[in-house]
Q: What sequence folds into this?
C-alpha cells in the first residue's frame, strides 16, 4: 500500500470514529461551555474539522467569527455535552424556583424552553430517574403558573412554534397548552384536575423516545418502526408507571390517548365506524386525544405542510361530535378565539 493510500485509510477510520463520538449542539448551547474539555468540530465536505481546540475560552466574539466564516454546524464530545446538560438542568431548576418572581410571562417562556431541552435529554434516556423527576416537578410548577395566568397561553404557544425543538418534544406541550386553556375556559373540571390532565397530556408521548428522531423525519417508515410508533402509548405507560405520581385514571388516559386514530383511519378509508366507545373512554381522554390530533394536523412536518385549522376541525367533528356535540361546539369557539389571539 502506498503511503498516500495508507494515510487515506487512517483518515477514513478517524472520521468514522468521530461520527460515532460526536453530538451536534447549537451555537447558543456551545456558549455554556466556558472552556471545552475536548476539541470542537464542524462538518463540511463530508468531513469533521476542528474549529475550536480543547481548553480554548469560548466567547461571544469567537462564536461571531465562526458564524462570519460560514460555520453552520457544531459537534462536541460526550464529556462536553454532559457539562452543557448539567448547566441547562441547573438553569431549569433556577428559573422554576423563581417562576412567579418578577416578570412571570418571561420566566414562563424561559422555563418552557429549558423544560423542552431537558425533555430532549430524557428522550435519549427515558429510564433516567433524576431527569424524569426534574421534568415532572418543573412541569407541575408550570401547570400552577398556567392556572394563575391563562392569558399567557397564546404567547407560550407561539414561542414553542418559534423554538427549534424536535416536534416530538414541542407538540405535546403545544397540545397541552391548548387543552389547559380549553378546560379552564369551560370550567369542566376542578383546578387540581386540570393541572393533572395538563401533566398527563404533556407526558403521554414519552414512548416516542423509543424511535430515533431522524427516522421520524422521513415519510416512509419500515414496518418495525411503524409498529413501535403504534405502540408508543403503551410504551409511555411502561416508562411512567410507578415512577411518577399519576393516578390509575391518568395512566389510562395515556394508554388510550390514540383511540381516535382508529376512527381517523376509517374516515380516510371511507369506512363507517360506530361512535360507541364513549362510555368506555370518557371525556378527559377524548379531549386529550383531540388536542393531540389537532396540533399534529396543523403543524408542518419535514415531509409535509400542516393543514388549516378549518380542515382539522372538519375531521375532529367527524370523530368527536356524535359522542360530545356540546363539547365540540365549545372547542370550535375556543380554538377560533385562541388562534385569533395568535394573529
Ligand atoms: Fe401520542
A:
Amino acid at each position: 500500500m502506498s503511503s498516500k493510500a495508507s494515510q487515506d485509510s487512517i483518515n477514513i477510520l478517524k472520521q468514522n470514529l468521530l461520527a460515532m463520538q460526536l453530538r451536534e449542539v447549537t451555537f447558543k448551547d456551545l456558549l455554556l461551555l466556558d472552556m471545552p474539555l475536548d476539541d470542537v468540530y464542524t462538518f463540511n465536505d463530508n468531513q469533521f474539522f476542528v474549529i475550536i481546540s480543547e481548553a480554548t475560552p469560548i466567547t461571544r466574539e469567537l462564536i461571531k467569527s465562526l458564524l462570519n466564516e460560514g460555520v453552520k454546524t457544531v459537534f462536541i464530545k460526550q464529556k462536553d455535552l454532559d457539562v452543557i446538560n448539567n448547566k441547562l438542568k441547573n438553569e431549569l431548576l433556577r428559573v422554576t424556583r423563581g417562576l412567579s418572581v418578577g416578570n412571570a410571562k418571561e420566566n414562563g417562556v424561559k422555563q418552557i424552553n429549558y423544560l423542552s431541552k431537558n425533555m430532549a435529554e430524557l428522550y435519549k434516556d427515558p429510564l433516567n430517574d433524576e431527569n424524569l423527576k426534574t421534568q415532572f416537578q418543573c412541569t407541575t410548577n408550570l401547570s400552577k403558573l398556567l392556572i394563575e395566568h391563562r392569558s399567557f397561553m397564546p404567547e407560550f404557544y407561539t414561542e414553542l412554534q418559534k423554538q427549534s425543538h424536535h416536534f416530538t418534544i414541542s407538540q405535546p406541550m403545544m397540545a397541552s397548552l391548548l387543552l389547559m386553556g380549553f378546560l379552564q375556559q369551560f370550567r369542566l373540571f376542578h383546578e387540581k384536575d386540570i393541572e393533572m390532565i395538563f401533566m398527563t397530556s404533556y407526558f403521554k408521548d414519552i414512548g416516542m423516545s423509543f424511535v430515533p428522531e431522524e427516522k421520524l423525519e422521513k415519510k416512509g417508515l419500515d414496518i418495525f418502526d411503524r409498529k413501535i410508533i403504534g405502540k408508543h402509548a403503551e410504551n409511555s405507560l411502561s416508562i411512567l408507571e410507578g415512577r411518577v405520581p399519576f393516578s390509575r385514571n391518568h395512566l389510562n388516559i395515556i394508554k388510550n390517548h390514540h383511540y381516535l386514530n382508529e376512527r381517523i383511519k376509517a374516515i380516510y378509508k371511507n369506512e363507517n365506524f360506530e361512535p360507541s366507545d364513549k362510555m368506555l373512554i370518557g371525556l378527559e381522554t377524548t379531549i386529550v386525544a383531540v388536542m393531540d390530533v389537532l396540533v399534529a394536523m396543523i403543524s408542518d412536518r419535514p415531509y409535509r405542510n400542516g393543514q388549516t385549522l378549518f380542515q382539522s376541525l372538519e375531521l375532529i367533528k367527524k370523530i368527536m361530535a356524535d359522542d360530545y356535540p356540546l363539547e365540540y361546539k365549545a372547542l370550535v369557539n375556543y380554538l377560533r378565539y385562541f388562534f385569533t389571539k395568535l394573529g
About this structure: The radius of gyration is 23 Å. The pocket of fe (ii) ion is lined by residues 204-205, 232-233, 257-258, 292 (CB under 6 Å). The CA atoms of residues 24 and 75 lie 4 Å apart.
